[in-house]
Amino acid sequence: MLLMLFVFWLIISARLDLEVVIFGVVISTLVYLFVRSQMHYRPVSFKKFFFYCLCGFKYAVILVWETAKANVAVLRIVFSRSINIKPHLIFFKPSIKTETARVVLANSITLTPGTITAEIQDGVFCVHCLDEGMGEGIHDSVFIKMLREFEE
Question: What is the CA angle 88-146-135, rounded to 5?
């Protein structure tokens, strides 16, 4: 992280002088020490960092795919000759342990068209679906499986 802060410093300074480099090392070190002490940051190994990046990329690709599928489903509803939708609320408690994973899941559900995470209380999600069919399998979705894998 210290190296990333220093590289970021060099990028935003737009010059490469001895003064800029020394000041960048000092500022980057101070920011790193602050983050480590106040935000309880602990560095991870390169292997874990690579694994997290790979999982994040995989999650992003699946999110884009699921969003595209949901867009098609919403377009079918919008362009159908007869509007026959049945809005529906679904309550479920996913087997996710961390608060961060719950927030990621809630945002993923909200980003897919036709569904909105209305509330999370005590780990129970309340999701509003545009139509009953859009909520099928949401309690055991690919997002939950990937987040469980990421937590382990």
Answer: 10
Q: Which residues 6+ apart lie within 8 Å of 102 measured at CB? A: 94, 96, 120, 123, 125
| pTM, 2 dp | 0.69
The parts of the chain modelled with pLDDT lower than 50 are: none
pLDDT for 45 equals 66
Structure tokens at 107: 């945002």
Contacts of 115 (CB under 8 A, 6+ apart): 70, 109, 127, 128, 129, 130, 134, 135, 138
**CA–CA separation, 70 vs 32, rounded Å?**
41
Main-chain phi, psi angles of 92, to 5 degrees: -155, 155
- Spatial distance between the Cα atoms of 57 and 35, rounded to a whole number of angstroms: 25
Q: What is the pLDDT of residues 95-136, one digit of tens each?
A: 888 898 999 999 999 998 889 999 999 889 999 998 888 888
Residues 77 and 81: their CA atoms lie apart, in Å, by 9
Q: What's the angle, vertex CA 5, arms to CA 64 and CA 16, rounded to 5? A: 115
